[in-house]
Design a protein that fits this description.
568 residues; alpha/beta; Rossmann fold; 4-stranded mixed sheet; 28 strands; 32% helix
Length: 568
């Protein structure tokens, strides 16, 4: 039998511990002083509830232009639309808290995550515990690594198996981020390091001009992601090579060379052009197909020998057959925009360029979404900044009729120097609202969002959670979109083709029970949450299609709390 620790001698235990210490010290990878730095105040075991803020939410808007008078609806009018459905979320709060709250309903469901975290330049771009981290901070890089590591761990749990995460970064932390991503997602999860050309004009202040940033791309399953990843559409210049010199009724086309690198015996044969000229593969190459396949294409009129009929054969590919291009790691500004373009976008929406200092261009986010998600997928950005991700989602949905949904998370970015600052409310949500509803002479793209705010509860205080927060959490757990809290003590969503009816009973009284029994009789199956499960089960005796679940134990278990929360 193998030894247990009790069977080891003192010297054997010492040798074992010394070997373990050597192994730990020589471990390859990123190491930072996590035990030396000030603890991130967001790292706690509190339950995170979400407050629905109706006056900051945006009701669904049609994809049409709206007048300024129509857009400028009052706070009171928005707050009264409690029955409206909100398909997207904007969450104000520390993103560590928000990510924990999102685990209740979105674990393994997000297809694409994009984040633009602080680059830790030392120039007041990175806030840790309400204070800026400057270049002279002794633990500057360790603070950043600990901050990012904790949030990336939570983000990983939200990704679908073939989901993908894109992270923008520059040279200040790119080396550390690559190792950090390897640690969280695994080296095997690395997809690419893309280069975004952020400038189009010369930068002369540095020894070598700074013209680019990086996008690190990781996925949980590279092979699955390859099979489903999107292609990028052809630009006008790329489509211009497709012509129709022979008036082909199938439209514009181009000739694709019919050779491949290497030597394969069954792909080495003579081809006679219409002019009588005989072609063989160039040296070091072979034809790209076997002869029977070539004959089929020639008979179908899909082989081109040039205008004179004597050129090396090429395969005709029609423009209508091209479903896009496989993305490269080089993203030039002509294709995805640059920093001047992104600043202009912010200026056009807000009337000033100072609303947000470092926005990303919408075209850059469109490229990410084209690669990373389909028309019905969920997109998450938990460093939402000025809301460019939501702008890109709305733009793509309006263009192709998609139903992409976004979840944005932004802190207020308030500090001890600027305690009233609120980037989430005043920049991110306001930009998305204007993009959806229309601004100046620009038509709205349509859509809606619920504005939520994080609030923490210790496990012992979970009995103090508010009814509206419970109903919000239950909807996120079981439904695709969010309804604002309604009046009354019974909250009810009818069954769908795929989902049971969902109900939350705040308290048991005669009126609410009468309404509940009426709903229950008409529903095929019901999932009912209540603070008094025993009493409700007795009142619904015989209703076997109703599953009665206790509050707050059910939320506590979903959140990851251990033990029981005692009902009042």
């Amino acid at each position: 039998m193998p030894k247990t620790y009790n069977d080891y001698s003192k010297q054997e235990l010492i040798d074992l511990l010394q070997a373990r210490d050597r192994r730990d010290r020589t471990r390859f990878g990123l190491v930072w002083e996590a035990n030396e730095i000030e603890r991130d105040r967001a790292l706690n075991q509190d339950y995170v509830a979400l407050d629905f803020i109706p006056e900051l939410s945006c009701q669904s808007t049609e994809h049409r232009a709206q007048s300024t008078e129509h857009r400028a609806q009052s706070t009171e009018h928005r707050a009264q639309s409690t029955e409206h459905l909100y398909s997207n979320l904007i969450i104000e709060g520390d993103n560590y808290d928000a990510l924990r709250a999102l685990k209740l309903g979105f674990s393994g469901r997000v297809k694409c995550i994009y984040i633009d975290p602080p680059y830790n330049t030392g120039n007041k771009d990175f806030v840790y515990n309400d204070r800026f981290v400057d270049k002279e901070h002794a633990w500057r890089h360790s603070l950043w690594c600990e901050f990012m590591f904790r949030r990336l761990e939570l983000a990983k749990d939200l990704l679908d198996q073939d989901g993908v995460i894109f992270v923008s970064i520059d040279d200040n932390e790119v080396a550390h981020l690559r190792l950090l991503m390897d640690r969280v997602f695994g080296e095997h999860a690395f997809v690419a390091s893309c280069i975004w050309q952020k400038r189009y004009s010369r930068e002369n202040r540095e020894a070598i001009g700074d013209a680019h940033e990086y996008l690190l791309v990781y996925t949980l399953d590279v092979e699955q992601f390859k099979r489903r990843r999107g292609r990028i559409p052809l630009s006008e210049d790329q489509a211009a090579v497709y012509r129709n010199p022979n008036n082909d009724p199938n439209g514009r086309w181009r000739s694709i060379p019919m050779t491949a690198q290497g030597f394969r015996q069954n792909q080495m044969y003579e081809i006679t052009a219409p002019s009588g000229r005989v072609h063989v593969p160039p040296e070091g190459r072979c034809w790209s197909m076997i002869e029977p396949e070539f004959i089929k294409l020639r008979e179908a009129g899909r082989i081109w020998f040039g205008t004179a009929g004597d050129s090396q054969p090429g395969v005709i590919r029609y423009l209508t057959e091209v479903d896009g291009l496989v993305p490269w790691t080089w993203w030039p500004h002509e294709e995805v925009g640059h920093t001047d373009e992104s600043r202009k976008e912010v200026r056009d929406i807000f009337g000033t360029q100072t609303a947000f200092d470092t926005p990303k261009p919408v075209r850059l986010l469109e490229r990410i979404l084209q690669i990373g998600c389909g028309p019905d997928d969920i997109v998450l950005d938990f460093f939402a900044g000025s809301g460019t991700t939501a702008h890109a989602v709305a733009k793509l949905n309006a263009a192709d009729g998609g139903r992409r949904r976004f979840i944005l998370v932004s802190s207020t970015e308030a500090t001890t120097e600027q305690p009233e600052k609120n980037i989430c409310r005043d920049v991110c949500a306001e930009r998305v609202r204007r993009v959806m509803s229309g601004y100046k002479d620009v038509p709205g793209l349509g859509g809606s969002f619920a504005y939520l705010r994080t609030r923490r509860f210790k496990q012992a205080e979970l009995l103090d959670i508010e009814h509206a927060q419970v109903w919000t959490a239950l909807q996120l757990l079981h439904r695709e979109a969010l309804h604002a809290p309604a009046a009354g003590t019974l909250h009810w969503l009818p069954a769908t083709d795929e989902l049971d009816a969902l109900a939350y009973l705040e308290r048991v009284d005669r009126a609410s029970m009468a309404t509940l029994k009426q709903h229950v009789r008409e529903a095929p199956a019901v999932r009912l949450y209540t603070w008094q499960p025993g009493l409700v089960k007795a009142r619904l005796a015989g209703s076997r299609h109703v599953e009665v679940l206790p509050i707050p134990q059910s939320l506590a278990r979903q959140f990851g709390f251990k033990g029981e929360v005692v009902d009042p």
